[in-house]
Amino acid sequence: MARILIPTPLRQFAEKHDSVEAEGATVGEVLAAVTTRFPDLKKQLYNDEGKLRSFVNVYLNDEDIRYIKKDATPVAPTDVLSIVPSIAGGLCGARASALPPGFRPASSTLVPNV
Amino acid sequence: MIHIERNPWREMVNHAQAAYPNECCGAMIGSIDGDTKTVLHALALDNVSTGSQRARYELRPEDLLRADREARDKKLDLIGIYHSHPDCGAYFSETDLKNSCPWYSFVVLSIQQGRFDHANSWLPDAEQTHAEKEELTWPES
After folding, report:
1. Do B65 and A53 touch (CB under 8 A)?
2. Within B39-112, where are the H helices?
3. A19 contacts in B (CB within 8 Å)?
4. At a CB cut-off of 8 Å and minimum separation 6, what does A98 contact?
5. pTM confidence score
6. Are B44 and B135 in contact (CB under 8 A)?
7. Are A90 and B23 an interchain contact pair (Cβ–Cβ within 8 Å)?
8. A50-92, pLDDT tens digit by residue?
9. Which of B32, B35, B96, B111 is best to mutate for the A interface (most A CBs within 10 A)?
10. In this complex, is the C-beta atom of A26 within 8 Å of any C-beta atom belonging to chain B?
11. How big is chain A by its Cα radius of gyration, in Å?
12. What ipTM was estimated for this complex?
């Protein structure tokens, strides 16, 4: 069985396991087995259309499955799957740069795009 | 809430000031006890944005994978991401929100004229439409 490493914030949706083992010949099958076992984890990884959320990447050992065969990527029993987010960001261009020094919104107010 | 210990805090501020006028980014590793996260290690990561790094940052997923492995090796947790806003406030911008992940705390350091000014921590939602401010403390705060 392949092993899937569960990121810390998602362990609450996987009975607090830091990794789980699951059967499957492909990445898609392994993920299906894990998310069937832990339905709440599925909501974290997949959107309402059943697709992996935009910020979710899956690595087979050290390789991003998008550059192999995506869900159809074959999995060996000794393989390790990792769930890794895409993260980026930054200022919002001209409008944000023009904000006065020390600008601090009181709450989670967004700076609108120009 | 999230508390950042003295050494990682110093490393984060130094990293942000050294990167100025560009944005810096990195990972925060530590422990979680109930609702309290404690950052024990800061891991400076490359900003690989191909746009202007004065206003953009991007992490390599491979670097986050490495950070998660490092956390596991230390029997700790990857609990957050930090980045800087040069000459701008430590708000969570729309760019931050649209490229965020709801699993982690996002600490933003405001660097004004090359010096640290203030910081905030944010918790974005899964739909990338809203971020809640999270209580943030560090030794000098």
Report:
1. no
2. 61-73, 94-98
3. none
4. none
5. 0.89
6. no
7. yes
8. 999 989 999 999 999 999 999 999 999 999 999 999 999 998 5
9. B96
10. no
11. 18
12. 0.92
